[in-house]
Structures are given as structure tokens and as C-alpha cells.
Design goal:
Blueprint: H1 2-16, E1 20-26, E2 32-39, E3 44-47, E4 52-59, E5 62-67, E6 72-77, E7 80-83, E8 88-91, H2 93-96, H3 136-141
Antiparallel strand pairs: 1-2, 2-3, 3-4, 4-5, 5-6, 6-7, 7-8
Length: 146
């Protein structure tokens, strides 16, 4: 009887837990640089070393990317992260369509800072499949205060 009660308890606990996944992001060279911790509503973007730099915000026009400093960085749609000019700056392994590298152990995640009031997103540009000339790490660091 105790075994049945224990199994029932664990099945209830596991069925109520929220879906959890990590979405790795790669730069134009196919190097793993960042990832999205897609846990419930947090949806934080971390650099590979564990530094939180941005978050995803679902709006009526799509999924915006904001830095914790409130700066609009771009959009994340269909596994592709695009900058404010519409150029690719990162993509998932599935969306990148090429060999990827650098999938080493991720660093310990730092606690995300408090989200500052975010600026109004710019008008969404035409999305291009051309890669931005920017460096992904530097681009994401624009969302931090330091």
C-alpha cells in the first residue's frame, strides 16, 4: 500500500512540473556561444559561461529579445535570432544547417538581474538569412549594464 501511495505521489509531482528545455545558440561559424533557458516564463539567454544577458518577451508581433538593461536587441523566431536590422546573429543547430562546434560544459548559471523597463521595439524589418557582421557575444553583452 505504501508503495502504491509513493508511486501515486511521484506521478502527481512529475505531471505538474513545467516543461523545461535548453536551446543552444550558435554563431555564424557554428560555434556554441549562448543558450536559452526556456523554463516556463523566465526564458533567459545566457552566455555559455553562465552569464545572463537577455530574455525573450512574447509580444503580439512575435518574440522580442530584450537585454536586462531594457535595450531591445532583436527577435527570436523559428530558431533564428535576428538583430534589429533583420540579420541573423545566432541560430539553433536545426536552423543553422551546418556543422556546429564548441558544445563543451556550460558554466554555472548566475542569477539573472532584475529586468529594467524595456524600450519600445523598433518596427520589425525584413528578415534576411544573411549573417550579421557582428560578434554574437558582443551583441548579447549590449543587454547588460557592465
Amino acid at each position: 500500500m505504501k508503495l502504491i501511495a509513493l508511486l501515486l505521489f511521484f506521478s502527481l509531482v512529475s505531471s505538474r512540473s513545467a516543461p523545461y528545455r535548453v536551446i543552444d545558440l550558435y554563431d555564424s561559424s557554428g560555434n556554441a556561444v549562448a543558450y536559452i533557458d526556456d523554463y516556463v516564463s523566465d526564458r533567459v539567454i545566457y552566455l555559455w559561461d553562465g552569464k545572463p544577458v537577455a530574455y525573450l518577451y512574447q509580444s503580439f508581433t512575435g518574440t522580442d529579445v530584450f537585454g536586462f538593461n531594457g535595450k531591445h536587441l532583436g527577435w527570436f523566431e523559428d530558431g533564428k535570432l535576428r538583430d534589429n536590422d533583420g540579420y541573423l546573429i545566432a541560430a539553433t543547430k536545426e536552423a543553422i544547417g551546418r556543422i556546429t562546434y564548441g558544445e563543451t560544459l556550460k558554466g554555472v548559471k548566475d542569477t539573472p538581474p532584475e529586468k529594467k523597463y524595456h524600450e519600445q521595439p523598433p518596427v520589425k524589418p525584413y528578415f534576411s538569412d544573411t549573417w550579421s557582421s557582428g560578434v554574437l557575444r558582443d551583441y548579447l553583452l549590449q543587454g547588460t549594464d557592465n
